[in-house]
Write the structure tokens for this entry.
Amino acid sequence: MLFKRIGDFGKISDKTKFRNEGNKIYTFKPQPNRFLSFFIEGRKIVITNAFRKKSDKIPKNQKKRAIDDRLDYLSRTEKGTYYGK
């Protein structure tokens, strides 16, 4: 439902459902799960990882993984090596 909403309206203003986590990483927050993601050109959303919420803050290792996955994705698409041969 949250993905449809952002697709239909281009944003979700409710911070209890969607939030900017910094470093161009965003969180979709359907209870009790969290989906870390980033946006790319062409109006695409890439989900990097997901986890079940256990505390108020995002675990540092989950956010680091999302940041690393974003940088890896951008690097591979820039080089034209996103898909393996």
